[in-house]
Specification:
Blueprint: H1 16-25, H2 32-57, H3 59-62, E1 72-76, H4 83-90, H5 96-107, E2 119-123
Antiparallel strand pairs: 1-2
Helix pairs in contact: 4-5
Length: 128
């Protein structure tokens, strides 16, 4: 079996003048990594403000203020109708692909799928 002996630590007393000198000579030293972290923390509110203004500024385009002058008529989709058949019917002398592109952009459609009973806006240049 082993024994452990515990000794009390040696306490050295310093003079009062030595302790104040030690406090006065201590300086804050930042490493390169510390400076980068401090700069990132200081710049975070600025970056957040810029991000907010960019995201909030995009809503002005989506509000439709620029499209206020666009006029259109609506067509109700019947069962069996496709964008091609609607485009061929409303503008027989024009390439249906161009009419379909205009209809898709006016209605903000991502694909050519349409449902029966829904109303689709048709640009007035193609209306009768």
């Amino acid at each position: 079996m082993s024994t452990i002996s515990i000794q009390s630590p040696a306490i050295l007393r310093a003079s009062a003048g030595a302790s104040t000198r030690a406090v006065r000579s201590t300086k804050l030293r930042l490493t390169v990594r510390g400076r980068r972290v401090l700069a990132a923390v200081a710049a975070a509110p600025l970056v957040a403000g810029i991000a907010f203004s960019v995201l909030a500024g995009g809503s002005a385009l989506a509000s439709g203020e620029q499209n206020a002058g666009v006029s259109f008529e609506t067509v109700t989709v019947l069962p069996g109708d496709t964008l091609w058949s609607i485009a061929s019917e409303i503008a027989p002398g024009v390439d249906p692909r161009d009419v379909i592109d205009d209809i898709m952009s006016l209605n903000n459609l991502s694909s050519g799928a349409i449902q029966a009973g829904s109303e689709i806006a048709i640009p007035t240049q193609y209306s009768h």
